[in-house]
Design brief:
With 137 residues, the protein is mainly beta. The chain has one helix spanning 16-23, and strands spanning 28-32, 38-39, 54-58, 62-71, 85-92, 97-102, 117-124, 130-136. A 5-stranded antiparallel β-sheet has the order 6-5-4-7-8. Strands 2-1-3 form a 3-stranded antiparallel β-sheet. A hairpin with a 5-residue loop joins strand 7 (117-124) and strand 8. Bound molecules: zinc ion. The site of zinc ion has 8 residues, from loops.
């Protein structure tokens, strides 16, 4: 883990609960108490109704691939050894969408499809940071 050289998140007061939940392997997103919708990325105001009454709520970690691309380019040096890798927008059962990576498919990324069922997998990349990634169900 100490050799991890890729970019890492820098949590702030608004995003820290999200990163803490990922670190605990118990994914939480904000849910608006006014309109009932889940929100991602974390923010201070609901983007749907502008309420500030947001609560951190555990989510299932299950969803479907909404869209994806497979990167074969070594444009960013930190990710050069990972190509090909999959960047995907995953729509959780709760409705929010997360930009993430699809893992456990590197041997055959051609099997990835829009609508494929996926589940969160926690990648403890350093002692302090865990990243939420998704794998096929
Ligand atoms: Zn709302």
């Amino acid at each position: 883990m100490p050799d991890y050289t890729k970019p890492l998140p820098t949590p702030d007061p608004v995003t820290k609960p999200f990163w803490d939940s990922v670190k605990a392997h118990a994914l939480q997103l904000q849910k608006c108490a006014n309109c009932g919708r889940f929100i991602f990325y974390p923010r201070a105001v609901c983007p749907h109704c502008f309420s500030r009454d947001l609560n951190w709520t555990r989510v299932s970690g299950r969803g479907k691939i909404y869209g994806f691309t497979i990167s074969h380019q070594k444009v960013i040096a930190a990710f050069a050894n990972d190509v090909p890798y999959t960047i995907a927008l995953v729509e959780l059962e709760e409705g929010a969408r997360l930009l993430t990576n699809i893992v456990d498919v590197e041997a055959d990324p051609a099997k990835i499809r829009v609508g494929m069922n996926v589940v969160v997998q926690y990648d403890d990349v350093t002692e302090a940071v865990t990243l939420p990634k998704f794998k096929p169900l």
